[in-house]
Write a structure and sequence with these properties.
The chain has about 110 residues and is an all-alpha fold. It has 4 helices and no strands.
Length: about 110
Amino acid sequence: MPELKTVGLFIITALAEIVGCYLPYLWLREGKTIWLLAPAALSLAAFVWLLTLHPAAAGRVYAAYGGMYVFMAILWLWAIEDIRPTTWDIVGASVALIGMAIIMFAPRTT
C-alpha cells in the first residue's frame, strides 16, 4: 500500500501547486481580486510542505512528482477550465505517469 499513499500524496500535492498558481493567474489575466494572492500563498506553502512528507530522497520525489503534476494539470484543464484534452494531451500525460511510476516504484537495492 505504500504505492497508493505515494500516489495520493502526489495528487494532493499537485492540486495544492495548481491552485497556488491558478489564483494569481486569475488576478493577473482575468482581472480578479488581488486578495486571491493570500490563499495562493497558503496553497503554495502547503505544496512545499506536502513534498517533504515523502520518505524517498528529495531529488527522486521532485523528479517523479513532475509526472503527476503533468497528469493533474491536464485534468484541471478539463475539469476547471472546461477544455477537453486532445489525444496528444492524454498520451503525454500517460507517458509522464509512466515515468513517475518508474522513478518511484522501480526495485532498488539501496
